[in-house]
UniProtKB/TrEMBL annotation:
Domain called SGNH hydrolase-type esterase: residue spans: 46-279
Keyword Disulfide bond: no
Protein name listed in UniProt: Lysophospholipase
Pfam families the record matches: Lipase_GDSL_2 (PF13472)
Tagged with keyword Transmembrane helix: yes
Domain of life: Bacteria
Entries under PANTHER family matching the protein: SPORE GERMINATION LIPASE LIPC, THIOESTERASE 1/PROTEASE 1/LYSOPHOSPHOLIPASE L1
Organism this protein belongs to: Oenococcus sicerae
Family annotation (SUPFAM superfamilies): SGNH hydrolase (SSF52266)
Transmembrane residue ranges: 7-27
Length: 299
């Protein structure tokens, strides 16, 4: 009987020994380079103009900002996401910089951010277009825009230099811009080229930054529901007769937001900013870029 008890006791002890060793090997290793659940606060700071502020959004989600936070929370329930939105309607790149320099709150949150998102350039370009819209030809307008893009490059670069001085560990995501008037004045393809010129400045500068990512929304928000080449070609052909000169009052009214527009991704309220559908698209593109980066999880 005693021998039997010794055998049973040995089997029990052996079982617990094997179980303990197995648990040691099966438990996930502690990686100091990955955020642990106990320290899983992720700070998202959004800088920029009206696109960051969320003008045109009727759902109260602050445009792409609230939408991308929802997507992140759903995908990464192990993290706690907090966000700060410092977008201001009408701001050019130099004005975004001035506000940043004056705001200790912005600087503090930017310094500790894990993810930084920014929109810039739309108001810089809009100002240039409006100030030169009385030129005699589309080519002359584009020449003025190209000449003044050097000023924009300098202004945006100064903003990025300041952001670099402040931010320590964040991944940086910067949107490009779009042409909200294209669907209505498709014959003015020069305006698309002007937007793309400024977008190239955004992309060139942001991709030189550490963990910098450029996000293009040009095609979807410019062409709206008309994405096929034949649809775009038809829009251009239909518009050539009526709206092929820079003196056309309808074109100017689109740029200053006083005429209706038929792009399903653009707000009917001001005919310039994205609507709910447009902001959802922006949020999805940003979300995909954040997913592909993942370095924000390891800082």
């Amino acid at each position: 009987m005693r021998v039997f008890l010794k055998i049973v006791l040995a089997m029990i002890l052996g079982f617990f020994l094997v179980f303990t060793v197995s648990m040691i090997f099966l438990m996930p290793k502690n990686n100091n380079h990955v955020k642990q659940i106990n320290s899983s606060n992720i700070s998202v700071v959004c800088l920029g103009d009206s696109l960051t502020f969320g003008v045109g959004d009727t759902t109260g989600q602050q445009g792409y900002t609230g939408r991308v936070i929802k997507l992140l929370k759903k995908t990464y329930p192990q993290y706690h996401f907090s966000s700060a939105n410092f977008g201001k309607p009408g701001d050019r790149s130099d004005q975004i910089l001035k506000r940043l320099n004056k705001s200790e709150k912005q600087q503090k949150l930017l310094k500790n951010a894990d993810i930084v998102v920014m929109t810039a350039g739309g108001n810089d370009l809009r100002q240039e277009l409006m100030s030169h819209f009385d030129v005699k030809s589309a080519a002359a307008l584009s020449n003025e825009i190209k000449k003044n893009s050097l000023k924009y490059h300098h202004s945006l670069n100064q903003l990025f230099i300041r952001i670099k001085q402040i931010r320590q560990k964040s991944s940086l995501f910067v949107f490009g811009n779009y042409n909200p008037a294209f669907v209505n004045i498709a014959s003015r393809t020069d305006l698309n080229k002007d937007v793309q010129l400024y977008n190239a400045v955004n992309q060139r500068i942001v991709e030189k930054q550490a963990d910098g990512h450029y996000i293009s929304v040009f095609r979807q928000l410019t062409y709206g529901q008309y994405q096929r080449p034949d649809q775009i070609k038809k829009l251009i052909q239909e518009d050539k007769t009526a709206n092929a000169t820079t003196e056309n009052k309808f074109q100017k009214s689109l740029l200053d937001g006083s005429s209706s527009i038929k792009n399903n991704f653009i707000s009917q309220a001001d005919h310039f900013h994205p609507n709910n559908l447009g902001y959802s698209y922006m949020a999805k593109q940003l979300f995909n870029s954040i997913l592909s980066d993942k370095s924000w999880q390891t800082k």
